[in-house]
């Protein structure tokens, strides 16, 4: 791959995954090449993590409490992505636990209204993410927390593609179904990028123990989630892919906290 293609794919991935004000001419042909561009999802995640890290750094410079800094950072991520993945997590929680049949679960997941399970899941997930990030700040410093967040945002989007590749589509005609499952070579490229960024981000301060802990937590949690997806709806949808990204970030941060 040429560097120019990686830059193009990253920009197009940011155009799909975020609401950043990117120049329109940068996104020309994005829809046609998204199947290939998704290999750069981890790079797009790293960019979003670094941008949110600026907020974390500024908030810490103002001597705000670590938890307040973390909530502001998580809020920045939500604003930049338009709550894309959080919406998927909420819809998945409502569908998986709000109905008794796969058909009804998929129907609920498509409904834009938020239910009790979605509300509680988002509250818990957002609070847990901010709390874990604050713990990393206090144990290893703000700089390492920024690196950890960057690595988590990158690797979680690679994990999301693994779920997309590994499970059949549960909703014909949906966005994930229309795009088609990522090709094996695309997945391998994304996983390599995601793992590389995660290792560069956390090994210098946390060591290989922290990296191993993050990978174990992520693998176990997402494997269990994949099994749940098959049991509840018989595969994956765009909502479950968003949920996988959110769970991936939580698993990585949780693994890091246990190792620090």
UniProtKB/TrEMBL annotation:
<keyword id="KW-0460">Magnesium</keyword>
<feature type="transmembrane region" description="Helical">
    <location>
        <begin position="143"/>
        <end position="164"/>
    </location>
</feature>
<feature type="transmembrane region" description="Helical">
    <location>
        <begin position="65"/>
        <end position="84"/>
    </location>
</feature>
<dbReference type="GO" id="GO:0051073">
    <property type="term" value="F:adenosylcobinamide-GDP ribazoletransferase activity"/>
</dbReference>
<keyword id="KW-0472">Membrane</keyword>
<dbReference type="GO" id="GO:0005886">
    <property type="term" value="C:plasma membrane"/>
</dbReference>
<comment type="similarity">
    <text>Belongs to the CobS family.</text>
</comment>
<feature type="transmembrane region" description="Helical">
    <location>
        <begin position="208"/>
        <end position="226"/>
    </location>
</feature>
<keyword id="KW-0808">Transferase</keyword>
<dbReference type="InterPro" id="IPR003805">
    <property type="entry name" value="CobS"/>
</dbReference>
<comment type="pathway">
    <text>Cofactor biosynthesis; adenosylcobalamin biosynthesis; adenosylcobalamin from cob(II)yrinate a,c-diamide: step 7/7.</text>
</comment>
<dbReference type="Pfam" id="PF02654">
    <property type="entry name" value="CobS"/>
</dbReference>
<feature type="transmembrane region" description="Helical">
    <location>
        <begin position="40"/>
        <end position="59"/>
    </location>
</feature>
<feature type="transmembrane region" description="Helical">
    <location>
        <begin position="114"/>
        <end position="137"/>
    </location>
</feature>
<comment type="function">
    <text>Joins adenosylcobinamide-GDP and alpha-ribazole to generate adenosylcobalamin (Ado-cobalamin). Also synthesizes adenosylcobalamin 5'-phosphate from adenosylcobinamide-GDP and alpha-ribazole 5'-phosphate.</text>
</comment>
<dbReference type="GO" id="GO:0008818">
    <property type="term" value="F:cobalamin 5'-phosphate synthase activity"/>
</dbReference>
<dbReference type="GO" id="GO:0009236">
    <property type="term" value="P:cobalamin biosynthetic process"/>
</dbReference>
<keyword id="KW-0169">Cobalamin biosynthesis</keyword>
<keyword id="KW-1003">Cell membrane</keyword>
<protein>
    <recommendedName>
        <fullName>Adenosylcobinamide-GDP ribazoletransferase</fullName>
        <ecNumber>2.7.8.26</ecNumber>
    </recommendedName>
</protein>
<keyword id="KW-1133">Transmembrane helix</keyword>
<keyword id="KW-0812">Transmembrane</keyword>
